[in-house]
Amino acid sequence: MAIEININGSAHSLDVDPKMPLLWAIRDLAGLTGTKFGCGKALCGACTVHIDGQPVRSCSYPVSAAVGKQITTIEGLSEDGSHPVQEAWRQLNVPQCGYCQSGQIMTAVALLERNPNPTDADIDTAMSGNICRCGTYTRIRKAIHLAAEGQS
Amino acid sequence: MSSIDRISRREFLKRTGQAGGGMVLALSVTTACQPAAETTIPMQTSDGSSIAANVYVNIRDDGIVEIYCHRSEMGQGIRTCLPQVIADELEADWDKVKLIQALGDEKYGSQNTDGSTSIRRQFDMLRKAGASAREMLITAAAGVWQVSVDECVARDHAIHHESSGRSLGYGELVAHAADIEVPEDPVFKSPDDYKYIGKSMDNIDGLAMSTGQANYGIDTTLPNMLYASIERCPAYGGSVKSLDSTAARAVAGVIDVISMPEPTSPPFFNPLGGVAVLASNTWSAQQGRAALEIEWDLGPNAQYDSEKYREELMASCCKEGTSVLNRGDAEAGFVAAESTHSAEYYAPHLAQAPMEPPAATAQMNEDGSCDVWSCTQNPQSVQETVAGVLGIEKEQVHAYVTLLGGGFGRKSKGDFAAEAAWLARATGRPVHVTWTREDDIRHGYYHSVSAQHLKAGMDENGTVTSWLHRSAFPSIGSTFSPDSTGPGGFELGLGLVDNPYAIPNMRLETGDAKAYIRIGWLRSVCNVYHAFAVGSFVDELAHLAGEDPKDYLLALLGPARKIDPADDGAEYGNYGQSLETHPIDTGRIAAVLEKVAEMAGWGRELPEGHGLGIAVHRSFLTTVGTVAEVSVDDAGKLRVHELWTAIDAGRVINPDRVTAQMEGAGIFGMSLTMHGEITAKNGAVVQGNFDTYPVVRMNEAPTEINVHIMDVDAPPGGVGEPGVPPVAPAIVNAYFAASGNRVRELPLRNAGLS
């Protein structure tokens, strides 16, 4: 059956099992590969997207639940990488392999939207669902503070 | 090659042969010990609109310099650092450099991106690639102006004739350089003139990585592509006894179910067998796979139980083993000693668990060749493995290299690429294989479990006069050789026989250990457990002697001198490089130790319940010292508050990327210290995902990881791996300082500390 979803402001009609995790609908059917697969069980955060502005682990979120909602992926965060969080990430050279960073950035953006000036403790709470195996955590903390300064 | 002979422990060379399964394979046991020389640069070719000065540099007539990156990017920053070196020698404008990721091809020399080799072993080759192109352009310009080359200089992407004020841009010189010979021995720039080398250039992939545009192995899509998910036997070496695919085929989106070729013994880098479900998308493939009904013959390793094996391994390290280094007479030293101390250390199997699980895409071409895109650390090995599985020539395999979502040694093995290739041929369509996280954790090439026995004899002053260290672990050699019985070859040089301590009587031994699962390398390999044991044991000795651990370590290092383990009968490869250029220099090790102690404020008064621990270790020709500050909270959980790291890697190309590697090594080291453990029952790995194989998360990350790069005028050492080994002993020693409790087993989770 066809499922209508809206990704980054564009309507997509996808012929999928309604139970398919949103992650695979985004990647395999809509062809947006910036959202990553890391665990399949909402344990690592690599697949984080926004649904109506809230961070969601798309690997464990059925595509049918996204109907009627606004899905934002890393590709929809800005046209040219100019979101303050993306700029802070580059300014501090946060990424090493880069694979988890789409999810890290999406979680960080959601954090800053509800808490424009987070403490280290706020950051630790918000970001602990996102694993970075390269170990960029201390730079992520600094980049979130930097982005917060830039937004204020 | 008609037969594969046993890989000698005495040889470190790349081997090619034929396995029992009829598959031609080429094996790089480890690049840690391949020959060092890789400085042959081929001559130029021209197609009219561009000049390829060599295989790494192509200058286009629009002025763009194309640089081929033949090494794999997995977070270490080589795609930034490699062009830094070439562009600097070439006097190229950084903004006019276009980086192209090279396919697997032996014309580039070694592309095996492991062993922290890219810079330490290829720095001269990369400089030569840039410098020879620069001299070629100078010769071309001098010819145009009919002046001596000595009057011409390269600067800012152009050749200048200073006395006449003339200049020609690199693009303009393409038309004049077609017949010019590339010099064999170009003159390198003076380090004083470096523009990019030694500078913290921004990550060349930073924009792509922050916008979701970076392409990894999992991201390759081709028209008409099938998505595959493969169910593999829980125990290594097992096979399918019976299969019912009826339910799997009924899953919407499933297109085919295909049995994979049987696994080989030894495993090499071959696929693990099993049953593949192919579908129109990843989810359907996974759903179909879950519906497979398979009865397994668990095969020859079904009895593997890591708890029982632990007892075997501990027994092995506690009885006389095979001597690999002898200095003086350790046994007589113990008899003469005033006191002795001994301890055993245990560390489990680990999985690399890169955030991107293994993933590859392949398609067959009409001419019988195969294109394969994969997140590989070693595209030439992918060529060899795929060629072996398909029964075609290596040159018929076009191995494209994507970005790697982490590697840590796992992606040196092209088994997943061979799976995609096999299925592409079987289906006649492009096939994309993505491993699940459970596949990655349960079907890996595991870091060895290890048990070590250490014994020291002290004189009446507490000075160590005799030392015994016996290490038992299943060898990486077991992945290539059916009769591997324990540690050997290059593994002994990873923290065992390169012991730097000034102890008059020393005996180093190995203990037997067979392998029952696939063994492979993980970031810094045997150095992980050797540094853990030695770094912990010397701390124990310091406390027994009632001395400050840092002062004790300095005394143990002894006077500044250069060590050659061969002097005491050891075989030592020094990571494939000369001890002349990359010595084991105890003076440099001591300097690192002093520096990191100073950074951490060693000896300062600490908050109640806090402790500092220190460790230093040389690996991959680089020395790293680490200090950890920890505390134990009321619930008995260990908290790492801060880490300090000093690194002597000789000349560094990009200080920020080196700093990042040290920060990352701190977290990676913390993960294996606090959490990491792979166990097996009935031949099958017990863990499956990040819930049962936890790694450090943001809430556990230290408030700061402080890094200092030593200013040392010496050839480059490795950077990707050497930050890891000192982390575990530094933390364990800090925990002792904080609590008075000594833990001799990793991970600390098993002691209830995390």
What does this structure look like?
The complex is a heterodimer of chains A (152) and B (754). With 152 residues, chain A is α+β, with helices and mostly antiparallel strands. Chain A folds into two domains: 2-76, Ubiquitin-like (UB roll), CATH 3.10.20; 84-151, Orthogonal Bundle (DNA polymerase, domain 1). Helix content of chain A is 35%, strand content 15%. In chain A, helix 2 crosses helix 5. Chain B has 754 residues and is an alpha+beta fold. Chain B has three domains: 45-204, Aldehyde oxidase/xanthine dehydrogenase, molybdopterin binding domain (Aldehyde Oxidoreductase, domain 4); 222-299 and 358-434, Aldehyde Oxidoreductase, domain 4, CATH 3.30.365.10; 487-502 and 523-751, Aldehyde Oxidoreductase, domain 4 (2-Layer Sandwich), CATH 3.30.365. Helices cover 25% and strands 23% of the residues of chain B. In chain B, the strands form nine sheets. In chain B, strands 13-14-11-21-18-19-20 form a seven-stranded mixed sheet, sandwiched between helices. In chain B, strands 3-4-5-6-7 form a five-stranded mixed sheet. Chain B has a five-stranded mixed sheet with strand order 16-24-23-22-17, sandwiched between helices. In chain B, helix 1 links the parallel strand 6 and strand 7. The radius of gyration of chain B is 27 Å and the shape is globular. The two termini of chain B are 51 Å apart. At the A-B interface, helix 1, helix 2, helix 3, helix 4 and helix 5 of A face helix 4, helix 6 and helix 15 of B.
